[in-house]
Design brief:
2 copies of one chain form a homodimer. The first copy, chain A, is an alpha/beta fold. Chain A is built from 13 helices and 12 strands. The first copy, chain A, folds into 2 domains: 208 residues, Rossmann fold; 91 residues, Rossmann fold. In chain A, strands 3-4-12-9-10-11 form a 6-stranded mixed β-sheet, sandwiched between helices. The first copy, chain A, has a 4-stranded parallel β-sheet with strand order 7-6-5-8, sandwiched between helices. Chain A has a two-stranded antiparallel sheet with strand order 1-2. The first copy, chain A, is globular, with a radius of gyration of 19 Å. Chains A and B meet through α11 and α13 of A and α12 and α14 of B.
Chain lengths: 325, 325
């Protein structure tokens, strides 16, 4: 049982979530690599949310939020502000429930991301790339459309959806010593902490964060929620600030938050592409990057890592390919 | 029953091969993509040999060759000349059977490929990058070591090993209209044609080849084995010339060979990386590239494609990553 100030979770509530979203998500594979196990002297398990519907774990939270709303609450559709994977996930979940989705996106979002959201049938509202303007636009959308706001991470339905990922890991890979999740807004990390505490209480939950976006680290060890300083990390999925609801769960059920340099992030990302032959976003590399940073702390252990998504811009690689041959 | 001039295959011989190599290879997954199916109006199945041991289908042929040799034939080890995936596969298969492997590699092979072969415990002999010098060096190695020569594709044991891939596809995905294999030396294509003829005779086998390395196309439609003109295609795994033994099988059991441009190859490769979230070599993109070239010929059909391997040099992508952010 997990008792928070304003909410609680137990095994049944998470099992219900898993059942609710099952028709709409993939049970993603867990990959292993002999060469990586040998390199780190550990048993490493990689949960491949890059293969998830819409290309990222965000589909779990969006699906749970959308499908747990009553018909009357959702009759005018859903809305959010996001430039990333939550936008695509919410657009797709809304389409599956056959209601409209309104997504406020900064006007400097990559064209490919906007195209993806439009491709899922959502309406895109462009804003300036400031939090104020995004929030102002979202408020306008809510007033005009009466659509229901589904936040990207600071929301218990979203958190419970993300918790389904660690539940799958625990079911398939028993006796884990550690599960490592990257941390940005904290939706995945808090969901992971909930499922791990409820279903595998002996397993520790670690979080991995870029040094260049270390608000969760600072918050966790100071005990006071810090906002993100202007972040410039390559791990673009982790540039958001930790949410309040997420922070409360993380404080209670996460063992450690560790940091990685940009170089360690790129080195870990390259290892995963080369050894596992899969395409992952930079944010996904954080768990392996913190192992790279201090391998002696992880040797001999059974460790699962969540690879959060595969939506990476490959244009430059493919543009160079023809000219380089 | 497949009766060739100097050899024959039947269902039992392929089933025996599958059983022999099973402990040493992965039964690789078959991926699908709703968005690609929608884009092409067809049911597309991608057999992921990029997840195979040593990163490519070549492990199948090498394992069958190495494990079908008698103890006395293999007592001095095995040897070959190859700069690519066959080198790594033979090195690893030899290690599994606990015999030495001697690999003649051109001195301009990428360091990363040489490192991989050395990492599997093989001895590397450097040669000039000409066929003559490679063959001279190989002859010298054979004389000195008495190691058994395992050719990369022009060999019935290797062909039978590669045939196991299509057998897995047919078992998992019934009622296919077409299986498409890329063609370089012809090992995979001839193996695919054998298994398809024996186990799913209504399914057609298509081959896909770069316009810039079109010796198989020219050979197939002229009826006379042509040598490769200096090939410059980006699909480096397909630069080799078709083998004689492969050609006989291909003439009898392949329906069509189709060509793709370099631009179609890169476009197909990008689609696979983006939609399936996997890392594949340029050679793997050929099957989808020929569909891109003439989609109307493939609409409404059930089509399996073999993604041959994932050993691609990612250095430039990762070097650019930190500087571009």
């Amino acid at each position: 049982m997990i008792q928070l100030n304003h909410f609680s979770f137990d095994q049944n509530s998470i099992l219900e979530v898993c059942k609710r979203i099952k028709p709409y998500i993939h049970q993603t594979p867990i990959l292993t690599s002999q060469s990586l196990d040998k390199m780190f002297g550990a048993n490493l398990f990689f949960k491949c949310e890059n293969f998830q519907k819409t290309g990222a774990f965000k589909m779990r939270g969006a699906a749970n939020a959308v499908f747990s709303l009553s018909d009357s609450d959702i009759k005018n559709g859903v809305c959010t502000h996001s430039s990333g994977n939550h936008a695509q996930a919410l657009a797709w979940a809304a389409r599956l429930r056959n209601v409209p989705a309104y997504i406020v996106m900064p006007n400097n979002s990559p064209a490919v991301k906007k195209q993806a959201v439009l491709g899922y049938g959502a309406t895109v509202i462009e804003s300036e790339n400031t939090l104020q303007d995004r929030e102002r636009n979202l408020a306008e959308v809510m007033q005009k459309t009466k659509a229901f706001f589904v936040p990207p991470y600071n929301d218990y339905a979203v958190i419970a959806g993300q918790a389904s990922c660690a539940k799958e890991i625990i079911d398939e890979t028993p006796d884990l010593d550690i599960i490592i999740s990257p941390v940005g807004g904290g939706g995945l990390l808090s969901g992971t902490a909930i499922s791990t505490h409820l279903f595998s209480p002996k397993t520790k939950v670690f979080a991995a964060e870029p040094i260049l976006a270390d608000d969760a680290f600072e918050s966790f060890y100071s005990g006071i929620l810090q906002t993100q300083r202007p972040p410039k990390t390559i791990a673009d999925g982790l540039r958001t600030s930790l949410g309040e609801k997420n922070f409360e769960i993380i404080q209670k059920y996460v063992s450690e938050i560790r940091l990685a340099t940009e170089e360690q992030i790129v080195q870990a990302m390259k290892l995963i592409w080369e050894r596992l032959k899969i395409v992952i976003e930079p944010s996904c590399a954080l768990p392996l990057a913190i192992i790279l940073a201090n391998p002696q702390d992880f040797a001999g252990k059974r460790i699962a890592m969540i690879l959060t998504g595969g939506n990476v811009d490959l244009s430059s690689f493919f543009e160079n390919l023809l000219s380089q041959k």
